[in-house]
Amino acid sequence: MKTLLLLLILINSSLASAHSGRTNSEGCHNDKKNNDYHCHSQASKPFNIQRKVGLPAPQNTITSSTTYNRKDWPHWIDADNDCQDTRAEILIRDSKSSIKFKRNKPCNVSWGEWHDPYTGQIFYKASDIDIDHIVPLAHAYEMGGKYWSREQKRTFANDFENLIAVEDNANQSKGAKPPQEWMPSSKLFHCEYLRRWDYIKKKYTLNESKVEKAFIHNVIEMNNCH
Predict the structure, then answer these.
(1) How confident is the model at residue 105 (pLDDT cuts 50, 70, 90)?
(2) Residue 101 pairs with which residues in a beta bridge?
(3) 160: helix, strand or coil
(4) Contact assessment for residue 140 and residue 147, using Cβ atoms and an 8 Å cutoff
(5) What share of the chain is helix, strand, coil (3-state, %, to 5)?
(6) What is the pTM of this model?
(7) What is the largest CA-CA distance in the chain?
């Protein structure tokens, strides 16, 4: 009996360590062991802001019988065929010092210097960094993006103006939450974060809920962000 119990413990331990890095609300995570960011195959669950926080649904919230699936939003593409995908391009753009590449090939970034605006911390290992969609894909889907073509979704998912290098745990904590549910821990970035959020929502003519709009207005007023 003791031998069987020990065998079960060993099996569970090996399964738990199959991936390094926690998954975010969309089932994606940064695999630090392999220096790779990926999402698991299952479709993400339908995302509904108001049901998660127990608030009444705003009148202009969009509902649909189809579910959000991250695979419908092609991301981390190599648009210019230089072997650097969108993740690598943002890591290079946001690094404050020279970049080092994995296996001495100018494709996968391994080291740099990133000043994470969400936490105010500095990181040097690329495996500690996630590339965050300021306006998350699942949120964009709920607020009008579900009706876009695959090409439009691809454009949004790889838009440099909507991408920022941040600490992986901060990105995973945010998941697909809008500002009224999640804000960066560093208050110094609150005004800039909301400016970028508002800019992207307007750029893609995405809807905003009454709760979202009121929250952003209040934070901007309190912090004198104008």
Answers:
(1) confident
(2) 109
(3) helix
(4) no
(5) 40, 15, 45
(6) 0.73
(7) 68
